[in-house]
Specification:
The complex is a heterodimer of chains A (about 110) and B (about 110). By secondary structure, chain A is mainly β. Chain A has no helices and eleven strands. The N and C termini of chain A lie far apart (about 35 Å). In chain B, the strands form two sheets. In chain B, strands 1-3-8-7-6 form a five-stranded antiparallel β-sheet, with no helix packed on it. Classes of the chains: A mainly beta (about 110), B mainly beta (about 110). Chains A and B meet through strand 5 and strand 10 of A and strand 5 of B.
């Protein structure tokens, strides 16, 4: 049974805090993704990674960074959280032509 | 670049009525096409996918979609809506394409 897990379902942080969102997959996938989901905007790609230590910017990378030190783990980092980063964050990993999603982390920045 | 367009960010149907969610793609070559569903407070899960084996694709929970090259469409349908179908639905072109549709929120009215 394929599985993508995210470290937190709900998270509340204050403006200026450094935030880590962790994602782990157990399918030995090379490709991993971070999206944010906002009402009316669908899923927007923040960063993705095709291999360990490899990262590529997506559509909206500003204010975010990522880390991929191990194949199974892809971390999203908010260096200094801001209120406009309040959102649902979805991690995914993919085999050829299919993406598998984690349950999401709803982040609120106060 | 491949992309998808979902027509209608909100669709409401009565319980027992036909469900029709629209997705059009732009591509010069036959794409892979997917529909994902997101139930409240959950991650995305695969509903069905088209990989050129058959133009009519059956998915889970009674949903199906038909690939129409002449119309560049891959609309999602279900003959009779259930209350449990209330969710957000996303169309995606797959492969290494990173673009999801903006999503269609389906409301089922008792």
């Amino acid at each position: 049974d394929v599985k993508v897990t995210q470290s937190s379902r709900y998270l509340v942080k204050r403006t200026g805090e450094k935030v880590f969102l962790e994602c782990v997959q157990d399918m030995d996938h090379e490709n991993m993704f971070w999206y944010r989901q906002d009402p009316g905007l669908g899923l927007r790609l923040i960063y993705f990674s095709y291999d360990v230590k490899m990262k590529e910017k997506g559509d909206i990378p500003e204010g975010y960074s990522v880390s991929r030190e191990k194949k199974e783990r892809f971390s999203l980092i908010l260096e200094s959280a801001s209120t406009n980063q309040t959102s649902m964050y979805l991690c995914a990993s993919s085999s050829i032509n299919e993406q598998f999603f984690g349950p999401g982390t709803r982040l609120t920045v106060l | 670049a491949q992309s998808v367009t979902q027509l209608g960010s909100h669709v409401s149907v009565s319980e027992g009525a036909l469900v029709l969610l629209r997705c059009n793609y732009s591509s010069s070559v036959p794409p892979y096409l997917f529909w994902y569903v997101q139930y409240p407070n959950q991650g995305l899960q695969l509903l069905l996918k088209y990989t050129s084996a058959a133009t009519l694709v059956k998915g889970i929970n009674g949903f199906e979609a038909e690939f129409k090259k002449s119309e560049t469409s891959f609309h999602l349908t279900k003959p009779s809506a259930h209350m449990s179908d209330a969710a957000e639905y996303f169309c995606w072109t797959g492969a290494n394409n990173l673009f999801f549709g903006t999503g269609t929120r389906l409301t089922v009215i008792p």
